[in-house]
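Researcher: Let's run the pair from yesterday's discussion. Sequence first, then tokens, for each.
Model: Starting with the first of the pair.
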Amino acid sequence: MSAEDISAAYAAGLCELRTLLGARLSSSPSVRDQHGADPTGHFKAAPDAVAFATSTTEVSAITCICSAHKMPIIPYGCGTSLEGQVAAVHGGVCIDLSGMNQMVELNSSDLDCRVEAGVTLRKLNESIRQDGLFFPVDPGADASLGGMAATRASGTNAVRYGTMSHNVLGLTVVLASGAIIRTGTRARKSAAGYDLTRLFVGSEGTLGVITEVQLKLYPFPSSISAAVSSFSSLRGAVDTVLQTLHCGVPIARIELLDEVLMEAVNRRGTINYPALPTLFFEFQGTTQSVEEQVQIVGDLVRENGGAQFEWALLPEERTRLWRARHEAFWAARDLRPGCTPIATDVCVPISSLTECVLETKNDIQELPFPAPVTGHVGDGNFHVLLLMDAGSPSEAAAAESFNRRLIERAHRYGGTCTGEHGVGLGKIDYLEWEAGSSLSCMRAIKAALDPDGILNPGKIFRT
């Protein structure tokens, strides 16, 4: 199609969408800009229009119109993804699912629920707390459950409860044709056919638009204790993580912040701990099991040069502690106001974690800008926050070169270029390295489900 033909098709499609949605189709520049950027500000590309959907049926109708006119579709939840998943690099229509925010069903006795894609993590947990239940996947932002499924989100609880891949039982998905399919069941396991649920979890909107999610839930633990310990060396902190896991301690959370990031978090005033490599722990279970976990881990901390645990026992104290951990990204930005932070996201086998982190810290010394380290180290996943000046070509080149070396290092240790953020725009080249010959299989699946390439084009694969 020529540029004129594409423009005419888009205009006709937008006219049909306006008839369908009325005021819920916005072409306001501010609305479009908001829906085309992620929190880093690194990836920006506004869609031609934003469609605010209210039901699966309506998403299907929107998709049918876009399909007829070959208009790209970009699903949008809360916009908290970090690899440019929501950037409309080829224009098109952003489908905002935030208005689809209802609990469809709650099955307390079976520990599962079904929610619309726009339900946020916080809203879900608030609504099921009275039933003594919670949903554990916590990426550190109040993300939508549909977006968390689409990006295969993880977070601080993954060491015990797993990622979205482990906690999604089924989905409702609108395909590129507008067809609505439902994958999975409420059963905890199945051997019936291809596992389509896992296919769509992590597909980043490139295979279909997720509109409902069936989730596993968990009973709220009877006893929870959180603790912090600072270490004289980074090696001591990371070795404590490895030894904790090797001892079989069923720890709920174990998070690392390096000395640079601890200084940044302290400046925000939420907490005040030594500016040293620090581990954040959370222990869950019965009172007796928590006491046993604390005893084992406390011994390991001391053996590796860690300070005495500082406890957060009351719910409000634990909330303050973990809020400080979740604010680490924003605290890091404050170290260099006006910077464009790039969040790297490698994950390696646990046995390789210490050496990989230490090599990375040595590499950071050569950078011309701050680069604090944090991570969900209980599952081998860590991040380096590159606080670069996007207007400086030399800093941009240094950041790109560092990220390449980091990912090469992770691959050398048998790891991956992304533990939880996804591929999006930022890791297309690295996926090609990592996937190798299996990339052609991924492309074939994409072509079969989205033959016209309208679903979030330019993400995961280069188009």
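Model: Moving on to the second of the pair.
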Amino acid sequence: MGNLGSVLLDEKHYAEAEKMLRDTLEISRRQQGPEHRSTLITMGNLADVLTAEGQYSEAEQLLRQTLDAKRRTMGAEHPSTFYALDGLGNLLKKEERYPEAEKTYREAFEGRSHVLRAGHPDTASSAYGLASVLALEGKRDEAFSNLQYAVEHGLPAETRLGLEKDADLKSLHSDPRFEALLVKARLDAAAKPQ
């Protein structure tokens, strides 16, 4: 059920995904306990659906509960804990709570850099999330630095090819560094399709 809920989320069938994941969460809490790994993953997936639906208050509550429980049960440096941090960063960015989002993305990026290292796609994704919120905050130089890091260290080809369509990066478009980064991203995506 949880896997089906995740597929529905990926396919943007949010109402169906929400129902499926709520049912899954109820069963998982009852059968496996409130802090079982499967329960926590389902909570995070449900929070992602709620975020996509604009139900930010409930999504934030779930994400914070999930993050706290993952830190306690899996540890601060577990890959699943970093996913929860990224989810919280995404939510805070959507709510335009940029300083909080920056802090959260920074924590995820630094943790992934330490644990997963530079070449891991999740580390690149955290750098990208950080770059996007920095661009929204008007911190152009640091945004470019993180964006370049993401492009050079495993950002998925689909994301690299969509840089100029990302509204969060719009403030960077007029800078010549952005065009140079687009060229590099296209070349890298063509050379190393993922």
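Researcher: Give me one sentence on the second I can quote.
Model: DSSP finds ten helices and no strands in the chain.
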